[in-house]
Amino acid sequence: MLRSTMAYDNDWTRRQFLARTGTVAAAGAVGPLAGAATRSVSPNDKLVIGLIGCGGMGAANMRSLMEFPDVQVAAVCDVDDARMPNDIRDVEKKYGRRPDTYKDYRKMLERKDIDAVIVGTPDHWHALNLIHACEAGKDAYCEKPLSHDIVEAVSMAEAVKRHKRIVQCGTWQRSTKEFTDALDFIRSGKLGKVVLCRAWISDGFRAGHQKPTDPPKSLDYDMWVGPAGFLPYQTNRCHYNWRWYMNFGGGLSTDWGVHMMDICLLGMSKDQDLVMPTKVTSFGGQLAMPDDDRTAPDTMEAIYEFKDPDFVMHWAINRDHPGMEGHGTEFVSADGRTLRVWRGGWKVLDPNGKELPKEESAPPPSHWRNWVDCVKTRTLPRAHLGSVAQTTIVCHLSNVALYAGETVHWDAKKMDIDGKVGKSTQQYKRPYRKGYELPKYWPATA
Ligand SMILES: NC(=O)c1ccc[n+]([C@@H]2O[C@H](COP(=O)([O-])OP(=O)(O)OC[C@H]3O[C@@H](n4cnc5c(N)ncnc54)[C@H](O)[C@@H]3O)[C@@H](O)[C@H]2O)c1
User: Fold this and answer.
1) Which atom of ligand 1 is nearest to the CA of 53?
2) Rounded to an integer, what distance in angstroms lies between the CA atom of residue 78 and that of residue 83?
3) Which amino acid residue places its CA nearest to atom 28 of ligand 1?
4) What is the DSSP track for 302-357?
5) pLDDT digit string, tens, across residues 377-402
6) In angstroms, what is the span from residue 366 Cα to ligand 1's centroid?
């Protein structure tokens, strides 16, 4: 059971305040979580990190972390040699020393001098990378969505808990001003009783058509596929493009749902231990681009029921967004007022769309700084993995319901699907390819 095992401070507003005033150890403090780290990093020490998955968002995280004088990048790892040169160059330029390079992340995890890793691989690899990092005593910054399926997400949360690791997830919206201001407004009750939440993303991506080819010589494609089902190499389903294939990712319901639904769940919860749905129903599929190589839904509507607090959440993969941002989150109160937040702003509207007054605060510390500080103080970061695992599961449930074709029931106490419906979908649990095994952390302990 995840919920009862996560101890968090109970006051988001107070925590926000503490975070903004720089009292970072107190922000999210839950007492010492010191685990069997490779070495213990004191506040004055440099945090030595390694990157797993170069060239994309993992590398962007690495560059954000390199801005801090108390961070040192020692090594980078990728299954494709061609993805590493820019990252090697920037690390060498910064520290005057070439980082060590690895093709197999398990070799990098054997190093005792590396305290923490960035997991910047595609979604189908996160569970193995992260759990192995926890077992090696490393803390981690792990990209979102956390997993390819529900069982992986529960397993990851359990591994983090058992090995007492400090893991920040890449849901950086939790640390940007428009979202923290909006969440403060909701949590302080200023919008009144919220009965409906909406989250959405617009989709216009076309993968096109390709025939399989030989992978480039620089790429260990078999290792890139890793635990996922084997599909022959095509550039339109490898680097970056994997996210449009349900074999590797979860489509936009996890890729963007984990950002936008995360805000709904945070707003409707007291702290990082998130309220979970009781039922989910979902409709849609590959309706707009049925003949494209992609397999992820391009049009989708999912409805979630929540109890205590009682509300409904609506998730949509839209084709359009007239008069709105292409992504966003809304909270609707019983009296018809709406709070809308997106990357770049937020507003409060009356039932006729007229803007109402709102309140601004100082921006919170950066997501990456928060992680470094929390690693050093052994406190929970703002996007603690146990919490983002809950959001990730909520996102997966929309796909589970879609592919099950029936309403799926969720048991928040057991942190599992209630009944059989949905359990045979790959978004609940996938078979691992021969040679790969998900370490056993599931079902989670109470
Ligand atoms: N937080 C955000 O806003 C944000 C934005 C973009 C992407 N992401 C997330 O970041 C992750 C990476 O996305 P991306 O777009 O950068 O992907 P990408 O395909 O561009 O890069 C991933 C890299 O990982 C490498 N890789 C794959 N398997 C590996 C393994 N076993 N060991 C080492 N390297 C391996 C690949 O070769 C590739 O170079 C995804 O989970 C994605 O959802 C988050």
Assistant:
1) 24
2) 7
3) 224
4) EEEEETTTTEEEEEEEES--TTS-SEEEEEEETTS-EEEEETTEEEEE-TTS-EE-
5) 999 999 999 999 999 999 999 999 99
6) 21
